[in-house]
Amino acid sequence: MAQYAAQSERLWLEPLTVEKHLDAYHKMSSDPRAASWTKPSESIEESKAYMIERTPNPKKPWIENYAILLRPTTSTPADQKPELIGAIGVIRFEAGHGAEIGYGIHAGYHGKEFATEAMKLFVGLYWGKEREGDWNTLVAAIDPENLASQRVVKKIGLTEGDLQDEEHEMWMKGGKEKKPVGISYYMSHCASVSQSSIKTMSSHTIKSDRLTLEPINLDKHLHGCHKILSEPRIAEWSTRAPHTQLEQTKERILESMSSVQFPMWAIMAPTTLSVPVPVADEREGQEMEMIGIIGISHKPENVGYKIHPDHWGKGYMTEALRLFVEMFWTLKEKKSLPQIIAAYTPGNDASARVLEKVGFKTGKLLRGEIELWFNRGQNRKSDVQCMYIDRRGSNQ
């Protein structure tokens, strides 16, 4: 199972648990600055009780809450764990009301767009699963004076509802006074939220003579993706072990679907026919099969790819990478990047040839950079050869 449920350039989301996150969560929730619109926690026992209420249980199996983690940077010590800077999730569900989102960000990280980034991740993750009935409405209940939170929900596409008659006890800034206030609701149904908040680079589809690159989708690509990610011959050059359970692949796809910066595309080709039909002249009803995966990995400018061994030696990977490079700088999120970076482990000659054919140039050789899956436990690190291709017109 993937370690993180969703990721962006700066953040990770992972399920919030008492065992893993209590101390950091208490540090955030006990800070009056972070809890200015709710009552600060007065003890770690109180924080623990609150967390237990916010984790799935027999009475509330629908609860979904995630720790917002700050991703390490190149200057972060290798032994330092990702820092919890907030929490986000569904905190209430009622028939006729919808699923209510709640979040908190540590005061030290206010004003840096982390709340907006985390909300986009969560909304993408939420709509990556099947939702029915009132679950097709996401609601954010916000005090009318909390302008910062109002800006966050508007940025991710939620629309303003009516001022509600319901009363809420607000923990006032700078003191312990409580005051009943009206709550302003911001609502959006599945269609509008999913389009506004997930309409990222991964909405692009592109075709060549033989292939189509289309965004990875759980319903359409789960079994094809699993066939690729469970193949030991592919994992030989990967840091990840081959998947042994379909649930692992499901989590990987959901991670991709919810990610703004690190999505994956399915490489689709016509099923084997006696007379091959080019994709560009696709006939009605022609069946397509998933033969590979390509996408952004590790960093916003890095490309990674895999193709099933049944389709090696046919030029598919070169064709797919050319398509990807053609698409990359048309994406809103990538227009400012001067290069695409790729990397392979010396000895993986097939991958090196693919990169060279597409026009990638040789970059740095990183010594002892990664531990490949088949070397795991042997205390043996492998080198990584970096390759790059410049954006047209770039002075890099």
Q: Radius of gyration, Cα only, in angstroms?
A: 23 Å
CATH class of the largest domain: Alpha Beta
**Beta-strand residue percentage:** 25-35%
Query: Got a strand count?
Result: 16
The tally of domains stands at 2
Average pLDDT works out at: 77
Cα shape = globular
Output the helix-strand order: EEHHEEEHEHEEHEEHHHEEEHEHEE
Q: Class by helix and strand content?
A: alpha+beta
Q: How are the strands of the largest sheet arranged?
A: 1-2-3-4-5-6-8-7
Quote the CATH topology of the largest domain.
Answer: Aminopeptidase
Low-confidence runs: 170-202, 273-284
Pfam families: Acetyltransf_3
Protein name: N-acetyltransferase domain-containing protein
Domain N-acetyltransferase: 232-377
GO molecular function, one term: acyltransferase activity, transferring groups other than amino-acyl groups
